[in-house]
Amino acid sequence: MTSNAVEIENLSKTFISVKKKAIIIPTEKKQVEALKSVSLDIPKGQIYGLLGPNGAGKTTLIKCLATLVLPTSGSARVNGYDVLKESTYARASMGVCQGNERSIYWKLTARENIIFFAKLYRMPQNEAKERADELLGQMGLLEKADTKTEELSHGMRMKIVFARSLIHDPPVLLLDEPTQGLDPTFATDLRHYIRNSLKTKTILLTTHYMHEADLLCDKIALINEGEIKSFGSPKELKEDVRDYDSIHIKTKGNPNLDYVRAIEGVMSASSTIRNGYSELVVTAQDGYDLAHRVLNLIHEDENARVEHFEIKEPSLDDVFLKLTGRRIED
Amino acid sequence: MSNAITDGIHEKMIKRGGIRAELRAANALAIKQWRVEFSYPLSVLYFIVMPFLWFLPMFLAGTAVAGSPTSSVFETYTGTTDWITFIAIGSAFSGLAMSLFWGTGMAFRREQSVGTLETLMTTPMKRDTLVWGTMLHNVQHGGLGVVLQLTFSVLFFGATLNLWGVLPALGIVALAVIGMQGIVFAMTCIVLLAKQGWMIIEVISEVFLIIAPISYPIAVLPPILQFVSLGSPLTWSVDAFRSFLMYGLATPAVIQAVVSLVIIDVLFIAVGSLMFRYTERYVRSKGALEQF
Amino acid sequence: MQTKDTSLLEETHRQQADIANNYLADFQPRMMDWNAAKIFAVKNLRIAIRYPTNVLIWGLLPILWLAPYLLMMTAVAGPGTSEYFAEVSGFDDFLKFAVIGWFIFKYIDASIWAIGNNFRWEQFSGTLEPLFVTPVPRISILLGAAFSDTVQTTLSAFILLFTAMALFGVTYTFVAIGPIILIMLLMIISFYGFGFMLAGMILVFKDPSVLTELINNAVFTVSPITYPLQVLPAPARFAAYLIPSTIAIVVVRELAITGTYDLFQFLQSVGFMCVIIVFFWTLGIAVFNYGEKWTKNRGSMGGF
């Protein structure tokens, strides 16, 4: 038995759209390669993120795994089950949460929705009821359990959508933009829940939000035009594109720049004066290594006092930009 | 949000597979549909009044030409002068057929426009269970409509029913549902493939209803349509259903009707299921489940 | 250069401000914006032209609904006619009788489904809210929808009439075209009021398909479309006269089948139709305004 919960091997998907030129043929065929031979293994218990702009292929990949779209070639296994040949078992092994509040019945109450879906996950009535109460309790929705979904807020509906994906306690979760459109409090709640309460789950998450990927994911696949462009932990990805770090130091008074420049490893140092404060920018191969030496130096300088400092490293968006020439939020 | 206590839920679910699990899912779908329907306040009124409103214009049109509850012309075609009972039973049965054709045939479209189709497709139930579950609902819905309409017809319009025929008539309904389910699978394919599928469904269901002996015997149809009519499960089921309810157990030519119905059922359900299986795969390969 | 650019920019700004000021200065809220109605009708027709098969289908589909009645009547009374029918309706041929009834029913159907449900269709296409934020009285939008539906319905109704005439072998005497057109026009105008009323009700009841089905079936049942009014019980006959189409069906049928109509009775019918127009327009606008206010108070306009 493999230790990977999700295995994707050379998965490709080409959409062919046929456009009629006239009432009768000839027709025009247009091919779009949504996925180009994507391979990715997710070990059990890990959270992997798919990060990329609109139309990059994230949702197609999730849908192929969720058995909603048939791939053109390649294979994928979820919890050891082939999504093509053993699709029922594969579906039973995963919970899918698409960031779409319409994916539950608005005319039913929160509890009725969960009980209904629980039965589709083969639960008898009494177990389904218990499970609904348990999940709604976890989401803080017990008080609203008997309110029609159409009368709830967007955030509450999204919590029901999320709870529904957990009904059968699946080992694998596919979360497609789970916090999209949520207000910051709800989104933070949900991220906290994913990080802390779903530790044993294997999660594949797509998101637009870089800080979300940074916060939640053990590994991230940067995807663009149907291909995985780069893969690694958030830190590794940033390391790959980092040519240098910049240390930003805000001081009261002016430190002596010549002393700073003399420190071994400093590539450049410059300062600007703004509102009576000096803003010093020092660049170095490894900002973390150098920061304490620069700070000690300024500390000894009687003319200057450190007010604030930070080491700026590249964001995931910078990584993406360097790799593809596009920004994620394009 | 607190932590989950989930002991073996997933393992239990995996073990529970098989026909029972599919039946449970189908039943959940049927109940869900009732809840959705009854969440609209006017639905209850609609449910009660509609069977009445379907039959009334037929009754009035018949009255306008017959002038009395009996017709000797009608007897030459059907063997009975009681045109009201004949039409009342046929019209009640057509309510069930319409409920199946429309309610079930459009199930995919309805779930899609609500936004729940993809979610339903990610659950471990078989894909045709969605169609069977909706069918179950519509048999209950349409069946209650049949009961209501027949009750109205007896109470207000002077139709007479032979109660000995009720049980065998229910057997006919069971046989009829299988054949009609074949048609419904084919209709579902059309909904999945064609943008304005409802129009095609409307035409198909109306054609099936016109060539069936619902409010007239097929003898009044043009000869070519009479011939086509013999291949429809609706034709045999309406005839047998009505015969049982009019003549009780002494129904003439019932064996021929039942045998024909069984043969047509097997053909229709086999072709329909196959069509559905291939179409569903085709739609997924196009990735169009969301926007077919 | 710099100066010239700046002055040009200022000039443009001034012009824009003038346009805005003039627009606002000239802007007067209106009860009915005929221009908006026209624009809306043209928009609807433009969309309709892109789906030409719809008109054809809506012309042919009713034949599938009409045929069972004719076949049933044939089975009960024999082909074409019955003594009793001639006695109660005054016409020999029930096929001839019903086909012209269904021709007019097309307009009833359109006023209920297309005008009454117009906002529902706009909501489906996602354009309802943008329409509602324009400074145009909503009743004008409805009227525009009604115009375009009349054009489409007329095409469909004639497709239905000619196909049914060919299929069932019936003919009509089109000699009194003028009076027929006059009565039909009055009926269509009165249906607009009827449609406004339904649109108002649908805003309140939220559940358009059920309400529409109920109203459509009830109207169909009490109207003399397939059978004469005489077969209805007295209260239902009274209800039938409250529907704008009943008199029109009776008059148009007489004119189309016999080619003649008593002048005094004709003028009486025209007078009665005018009363119905005033009645339904007053009622329709009142119900619609009430419905609009009702939904605005509850803030449920977007998702009714």
How would you describe what is shown here?
- The complex is a heterotrimer of chains A (330), B (292) and C (304).
- Chain A is an alpha/beta fold.
- The mean pLDDT of chain A is 86.
- In chain B, helix 3 runs antiparallel to helix 5, helix 8 crosses helix 9 and helix 9 packs antiparallel against helix 10.
- Chain C is 79% helix and 0% strand.
- Chain C contains 13 helices and no strands.
- In chain C, helix 2 crosses helix 8, helix 5 packs antiparallel against helix 10 and helix 9 runs antiparallel to helix 12.
- Chain C is elongated and about 90 Å long.
- At the A-B interface, strand 1, helix 2, strand 6, helix 3 and helix 4 of A face helix 1, helix 2, helix 7 and helix 13 of B.
How would you describe this structure in keywords?
heterotrimer; B: 292 residues; mainly alpha; 77% helix; C: 304 residues; 0% strand; elongated
In short:
Chain A is α/β, with parallel strands linked by helices. Helices cover 33% and strands 33% of the residues of chain A. Chain A contains eleven helices and 14 strands.
Order of helices and strands of chain A: EEEHEEHEHHHEHEHEEHEHEEHEH
> How is the main sheet of chain B built?
none
- Chain pair sharing the greatest interface: A-B, 57 and 43 residues
- Indicate the structural class of chain B: mainly alpha
Mean pLDDT value of chain A: 86
Structural class of chain A: alpha/beta
Estimated radius of gyration of chain A? 25 Å
What is the count of DSSP helices of chain A, taking H or I runs of 4+ residues? 11
Chart the SSEs and their pairings.
The complex is a heterotrimer of chains A (330), B (292) and C (304).
Chain A: E1 4-20, E2 27-43, E3 47-51, H1 58-65, E4 73-78, E5 81-82, H2 87-93, E6 94-98, H3 110-120, H4 125-138, H5 154-165, E7 172-176, H6 184-197, E8 202-207, H7 210-216, E9 219-224, E10 227-232, H8 234-241, E11 245-252, H9 257-262, E12 266-274, E13 277-284, H10 287-300, E14 305-312, H11 316-324
Parallel strand pairs in A: 3-8, 3-9, 6-7, 7-8
Antiparallel strand pairs in A: 1-2, 1-4, 4-5, 9-10, 11-13, 11-14, 12-13
Helix pairs in contact in A: 3-4, 3-5, 8-11
Chain B: H1 9-15, H2 19-38, H3 41-66, H4 72-78, H5 83-105, H6 107-114, H7 117-121, H8 127-157, H9 166-193, H10 197-210, H11 223-229, H12 233-247, H13 254-286
Helix pairs in contact in B: 2-8, 3-5, 3-8, 5-8, 5-9, 5-10, 5-12, 8-9, 9-10, 9-12, 9-13, 12-13
Chain C: H1 2-26, H2 34-50, H3 52-77, H4 83-89, H5 94-115, H6 118-124, H7 128-132, H8 138-168, H9 177-205, H10 208-222, H11 234-240, H12 245-258, H13 263-298
Helix pairs in contact in C: 2-8, 3-5, 3-8, 5-8, 5-9, 5-10, 5-12, 8-9, 9-12, 9-13
